[in-house]
Specification:
The chain is α/β, with parallel strands linked by helices. It has helices at about 25-40, 45-55, 60-70, 75-90, 100-110, 125-130, 135-140, 165-180, 200-205, 215-220, 225-230, 245-250, 255-260; strands at about 15, 115-120, 145, 190-195, 210-215, 275-280. The chain has a 6-stranded parallel β-sheet.
């Protein structure tokens, strides 16, 4: 067990996942999947499989689902059916509890600026279907700070649980800061990632960022007794050697580089009870002061 870190700098940037964190699209995904499964006499999607799909890029999610379901149709036909249902149902998404007030507070009330960015595995077409009718909600994220799953800047095979999408979201924030020249750039340690999925938590931890895990109640049941593993970024399936690339490039092991620099190395997950992540059951009544975010008094 690692000693719990408490001397964090104040959070200066909040990076948000979307599906199942901001909007109820994960429940809609389940309805769509079950509609297709039932058409072929298959059982509904169980949460142990659903948990593996959440937060992952489309191709990887399709592979996991098709291997489990063993549907008597090619993947292309499944995708065609799914796409038709998505076009009908995604425009009905709704914000989840606490999201509107959280974004409003972060955008308008901090005594010191808190930068916002979106980092979702959803591709452009699906993102627009899910968010087009929720313009006020997504106005908090300028276009240049919306990193989507099909962003060409994300290398192939580097979706969540790899850290790339969150590191890219941070880079969009720092690009704006450099243009304005009014404040110093934000470091990963000054970022707070908001996630509902296990791969997403791992991505945030591997990016060297603090993380809020706000999971679906059914997902939480699947990981009962393993919550600390999830918070450390240790509950996923990412290969252990994929997290050491940065350290290998400089010719030393990660822990040695961390001891020398006093900072976490990008790409490595955390440790149990290390203080970098927290489980919240809802985004309502968010504990701003715990993260060094001070709001203006009413």
């Amino acid at each position: 067990m690692a000693p719990s870190k408490t001397d964090f700098p104040p959070v200066r940037a909040c990076l948000f996942d979307m599906d199942g964190l901001m909007i109820d699209s994960e429940d809609i995904y389940t309805i769509i999947t079950n509609t297709i499964l039932r058409e072929y006499g298959k059982p509904d999607l169980p949460w142990d499989i659903k948990a593996q799909l959440q937060g992952r890029p489309g191709p990887e999610a399709y592979r996991i689902l098709i291997e489990w379901a063993q549907l008597p149709i090619p993947t292309s036909e499944y995708i065609s059916k799914q796409t038709a249902l998505q076009r009908a149902k995604f425009p009905t998404t709704s914000p989840l509890p606490g999201v509107k007030s959280l974004l409003h507070d972060l955008e308008h009330k901090p005594t010191s600026p808190v930068q916002l960015a979106l980092a979702t595995s959803s591709h452009r077409v699906n993102f627009e279907l899910k968010s087009g009718h929720l313009g006020e909600l997504f106005r908090a994220f300028p276009e240049e700070r919306r990193v989507l799953g099909d962003d060409p800047r994300i290398p192939v095979g580097k979706g969540k649980p790899a850290p790339d999408i969150y590191l890219l979201a941070l880079s969009t924030i720092n690009e704006g800061i450099r243009r304005e020249g009014k404040e110093k750039e934000v470091t990963p340690e000054e970022c707070l990632v908001f996630e509902d999925s296990v791969p997403g938590v791992e991505a945030g931890r591997r990016a060297g960022m603090r993380v809020i895990w706000c999971p679906h109640p059914e997902l939480l049941k699947e990981f009962k007794g393993r919550e600390k593993e999830v918070l450390a970024g240790l509950a996923g399936e990412r290969k252990a050697d994929e997290g050491v690339k940065t350290a290998d490039q400089v010719g030393e092991d990660i822990e040695g580089k961390e001891r020398r620099s006093g900072q976490r190395v990008e790409g490595k997950p955390g440790k149990i009870d290390d203080g970098w992540a927290e489980l919240l059951y809802s985004l309502e009544d968010f504990p701003y002061e715990r993260y060094g975010i001070k709001l203006q008094k009413q």
